[in-house]
Amino acid sequence: MPKSLPALLLLLPLLLVACSAEEGSAPAAAADSTVAARAAHEAAPTSTAAEPAGPLVVYSSRQEYLLKPIFDRFTAETGIEVQLQTGEEGPLIARLQAEGEGTFADILYTVDAGNLWSAAEKGLLAPTDSPVLEEKIPAQLRDPQKRWFGLSVRARTLVYSTERVKPEELSSYEALADPRWRGRLCLRTSKKVYNMSLVATLIDRLGEASTEQIVRGWVANLATRVMSSDNLVIEAIAAGQCDVGIVNTYYLGQEQQKNPAIPVALFWANQAESGVHVNVSGAGITRYAKHPAAAQRLLEWLASDAPQRLFSELNLEYPANPAVAPVDLVASWGSFTADPINVEVAGRLQAAAVMLMDRADYR
Q1: Is residue 9 scored above 60 in pLDDT?
Q2: Are strands 56-60 and 82-86 parallel, antiparallel or unpaired?
Q3: How far from each other are the two terminal CA atoms of the chain, in whole angstroms?
Q4: Per-residue pLDDT, 304
Q5: Domain boundaries, the chain
Q6: CA 109 from centroid of its chain's CA atoms
Q7: 155-277+347-359 and 56-153+279-331 share a CATH fold
Q8: Which residue, of 73, 234, 279, 283, has the fewest CB within 10 Å?
Q9: For every residue of 323-361, which 3-state class applies, written as one string?
Q10: C-alpha 77: how far from its chain's center?
């Protein structure tokens, strides 16, 4: 045996310990690096703006031609595809409820705060914490619990015959119950949510007893049976069947586009009292949305200037964002003071409004 071998054997355990210590130090360093990287990632701000996702699925009671041009523009700008499925609001909300966690719907987009409130109360919409939406959409046009946001505004006010009524004869919704309008009033059916919402706001402001007296006065003043649409109310006034009615403003805009000389004009109701009744079309992110970040991005985009202007162009509505001006035809109707009440009352008191109208024989 060489003389150096015993010394080498004595050194071998020390070498093994040293090697083990070095090999162990590499995984420890890697683990420390991984923890640091993970912490840095978790601390870094996340951005939803750079993550095209989807396709987004939107359930909507609005007609396709009113939304598709807007969604197409969103897709062109962001790369996020939007698939639109349309139908009546009641069946759409029932479908969303039946689908539960299995739904593919990311957004519910419907007309009237009453419908949005109903969907939210059924637990179908998730709260959305968005400083952008809170900045661009006034508080009275969005859910206090952040479950839905108004995206366009419709005013429901008086219309009258320019041939048989002087504007100074008009004043408020309540005044249409006066006997002076006996046989001169046309109304749309109470079964339409727009009238339910109007009556709900009257209940909130005046109480049920006073509101019921007003609605009974409306019924007593009807010139004919209630009608199925606001367009028919306007056409009946133009034809001399009645002299005054209550409609959403964009319906008169539609008639004016067809016939600029139509002898019917708007009157802004309740300017000396509560202000004109307004409502919204709006949207919320569904509770089980598959793409909530992209859905929030769409809602925030819809509140921005260009889409808000498109709402006014496509359906003659008012932008919900007060920084955006409506199109010329809408602007030509003049300015008005709107009722400052939060539109959620249209849903909260909808059942009471329906029962009241039934008692008053308003069908």
Answers
A1: no
A2: parallel
A3: 116
A4: 98
A5: 56-153+279-331, 155-277+347-359
A6: 6
A7: yes
A8: 73
A9: CCCCCHHHHCCCCCCECCCCCCHHHHCHHHHHHHHHHCC
A10: 22
185-216 pLDDT, tens digit each:
999 999 999 999 999 999 999 999 999 999 99
Tokens of residue 42, six digits: 């978790």
Fold that domain 56-153+279-331 belongs to in CATH = D-Maltodextrin-Binding Protein; domain 2 (3.40.190)
**Sequence-separated (6 or more) residues with CB below 8 Å from residue 317:** 152, 153, 154, 250, 281, 311, 326, 330
Dihedral angle over CA of 265, 271, 275, 278, nearest 10: 10
Q: At what angle do helices 305-315 and 292-302 cross, to 10 degrees?
A: 70
The topology under which CATH files domain 155-277+347-359 is D-Maltodextrin-Binding Protein; domain 2 (3.40.190)
Do 164 and 245 contact (CB within 8 A), yes or no? Answer: no
The verdict on pTM exceeding 0.70 is yes
